[in-house]
């Protein structure tokens, strides 16, 4: 029998929030969830539907959680048009436990003109720093970040991007070849012209308040990722560069380490490889008897 009762409802000036108990993925409105129903059911993952009403937006989140390692790594998927990111994150939950949250935008990148990854702020004053946020979103922000309470590991996200970047003849905005006053790039060992992760679009994004040169801990983390063959791009978050993204919010509020795995659209196998390398660097081991990977058959 479906667990249909809502277990949490919060109302007030900051917004209205609700989250369901475990539901059947067969009844989900998410094409990603329905497409991977067999893998979700086989692993016994808990599927929950979460809603946040705030600032004129009715947000819907689709949440998957592993019963075997409830405190394991948790992934946020802000963009609903990034299928490889969803598949790599589902691989991570099946392999390492933890969970994921996918924002529902009806298969589009943005939701009613708002980029879900430019919607993290705690106040009107903070929101005004970001040209990409239409209204303050403390309830949205709190609902996403509450999933990290009591978990081991850092803040994690998955994204896909277009080929190359516009400033270098490409069509996207993300590239290891792109740098500026607050953006620093570090190529992974073996990720040059003949390396296994040589594509400029495949990289791990980090963020912090200091430059890499002035932060020894950041330099050590970057070096470890580079040694694992991963390209790393680091953003220094300042009052001017803050953009209300999850990475910038985590850095601005000093919440902890953040890693976003970026790969080109359609590069599912590469993004899974990058996920496994990151987990290894972080010391997170696969669950015993983890289900066979449905994406690499």
What is the structure about, briefly put?
By secondary structure, the protein is α/β, with parallel strands linked by helices. The chain has helices spanning 31-35, 37-42, 83-96, 124-127, 138-145, 216-227, 246-252, 268-282; strands at 6-10, 16-20, 46-54, 57-65, 74-77, 99-103, 155-161, 183-186, 203-208, 232-236, 258-264.
Structural account:
With 297 residues, the protein is α/β, with parallel strands linked by helices. It has one domain (12-282): Aminopeptidase (3-Layer(aba) Sandwich). The protein is 24% helix and 22% strand. It is built from eight helices and eleven strands. It has helices at 31-35, 37-42, 83-96, 124-127, 138-145, 216-227, 246-252, 268-282, and strands at residues 6-10, 16-20, 46-54, 57-65, 74-77, 99-103, 155-161, 183-186, 203-208, 232-236, 258-264. An eleven-stranded mixed sheet has the order 1-2-3-4-6-5-7-11-9-10-8, sandwiched between helices. The longest helix is centred in the C-terminal third of the chain and has 15 residues, at 268-282. It is globular. 44% of the residues are buried. The model is unreliable at 1-13 (pLDDT under 50).
